[in-house]
Design goal:
Layout: E1 20-22, E2 29-32, E3 38-40, H1 77-89
Antiparallel strand pairs: 1-2, 2-3
């Protein structure tokens, strides 16, 4: 099966997450739209990001020093490719 990436602003806590919605079970609960897990408003993970949260922050771009191509023809292709990949994801 093909994989997909959803680019969105990532919140620090369940409280501010756009993937939560009010639970039909109880007014004091929220459900996670990604995992289906229930999050209590008082206590639990509502005020933090739980370990089971599947959202991951994108890695930083790698620093590329100097001008390219260099006279010796060697370029840091891994770093340039890494940064180009991040640019494509963030388009």
């Amino acid at each position: 099966m093909a994989k997909a990436v959803l680019v969105m602003d990532m919140s620090e806590t369940c409280k501010d997450c756009s993937c939560k919605y009010p639970s039909y079970k109880d007014d004091a609960l929220y459900d996670c739209a990604i995992t289906g897990k229930t999050i209590p408003i008082d206590g639990g993970h509502y005020g933090e990001k739980p370990d089971w949260c599947p959202l991951r922050e994108l890695p930083e771009k790698m620093k590329v020093c100097g001008r390219y191509p260099q006279p010796d023809g060697i370029t840091p292709s891994y770093k340039i490719g890494w940064n180009a990949c991040l640019d494509e994801i963030l388009k």
